[in-house]
Amino acid sequence: MNNRQITTLWSQIVIEELIRQGADFFCISPGSRSTPLTIAIARNPKARWKMFADERSAAFFALGYGRATALPAVLVCTSGTAVANYFPAVVEASMDFQPMLVLSADRPFELLECGANQTIRQENIFGGYTRWQMQLPVPSTDAPLKALLSTLAYAVAKSLGESAGPVHLNQPFREPFEPSTPDLKDPWVAPLHQWLQNGKPFSSSIVPEKQPDSNTITMLRQLLAAAERPMIIAGSMTSRADALAVSGLSSDLGVPLYPDFSSGLRMVASLNPWQLLLQSPEVRKSLQCDLVVHFGGNVIAKHPSTALQEWQPEHYIVIKPQQARFSPDHNVTCRLEASIALTAEMLKGCRAIPSKPGSNTVDRFFRRASEEIQSELLPEKPVTDISAARLVSELVTSQQVLFVSNSMPVRDMDNYAQSSHPCGIPTAINRGVSGIDGIISTAAGFANGHQKPGTLMIGDIAFLHDLNALSLLGTLPVPMQIIVLNNNGGAIFSFLPISECSDVFETHFATPQNYSIRSAAETFGLDYAAPQTNQEFSEVYRAACSSNRSIIIEVKSSRAENVIQHRALRERIMALAEEELCH
Question: Could you give all domains of the chain from N- to C-terminal order, each with its CATH number?
């Protein structure tokens, strides 16, 4: 076969085996060097694909898709800076254990470091942020095709392993790139005849969940049984089954559960927001937990970390399946690397008399705190960051998914959400490294992966950061409701001590932006609304949830007033907490 035939068949095999391995959704950015891969995708009837003008947006979309499906989307790009634009999303996927597969086209070795156009060193470009990376050979009959199939199967397996994450395959091509019908009777192809006929993946990988050993479980059961004031923290998790298992354990043992938004449990109706209690130093002192069992990874608020530093419990146990260390304050006394769901199930029944410390007063506090938050929702009052978060949590339907941006939106949702859904709804954030880049793209990928309409809450700076991703919304199979909390700058900085430095704060930290969100909606053919009151917001959002069109809902506010509102509500809630638990 000639070079065109070899390249065509090679690319067809790459795409077909990825599809057979379950990686059948491709995020493609246009380019010349990746022509063989793009054509192989376009002509494979089993391939699902989406085109992206911007590789950075494509990568974040793939990240959101992976969050929704627990399967890697395959990113396909040309050579040069195209692959470098994947880096922020690759880092997020790596740090938050989300599957992703990068398939980058490259120049052959004779064009490297000789001044050839659009050529950089792409091999291992993502460094330690990949679970595995492999430099593939230029398509040639010298390379055995079974080795190619084995490599592809392993790449998908590594992306989906116990520490799921990004995998990078770098594929150089020589010109010409135009397709040509390959000769399947060529001796080079003979070892693949069975694979070509059976439609099955070349090989499979089985990675069973890590089950903790019996001695460890016995030790943990004894500690839980003996603890006077235990607490369970549900941190960042990638599995809904894990999250529900932790919730079930808390209920079974009668042990208080701190449900962080990143765990997926914050939108479960029956769980109380311990975020509100731990804000008070006096309440933290009165609780004084002697055992903390932390399932998963990071949490959003600083209050649990502060509480742990103040309590200094004899036992602070972290349970998560990944090898990566989690001990930001270096106070973990025991780290168990095991399945969260299996461990939670094996710990059930270890407390003979389940009892929540001060459960009556705690429950009364949560009722009163909820009423205090509801006072922010009076119909005629102006809609604020706080009331928008609360209203969305109440009104979002079970047929939707919810994505929340970093900075203030996720903190407001973590603190003030109130759900009516017994099992919650699919929620997500990019909390691996907590960036504000690529948020719209990730939310779009998350909704696309779930095949459900998606609501996104995002600040005006993060919205601007990913503005070109609005072009995706017109091509999604589901609509999105994007709620932009526009306070003309980075609101979170107003809560930091730097806000007192008036000579530099506004120009160097708040970064006010006076662009038109309405114009952005019009540019990309999206519906737009700017409700003024809580009642108007509720009406607009309800209508949007039942519409098949995407919409941008702008909530305008003042950064200065936003700080006053947050601090006033927090003080009222802290006063309630101290009244109920400290007297």
Answer: 3-198 (3.40.50.970), 214-354 (3.40.50.1220), 362-578 (3.40.50.970)
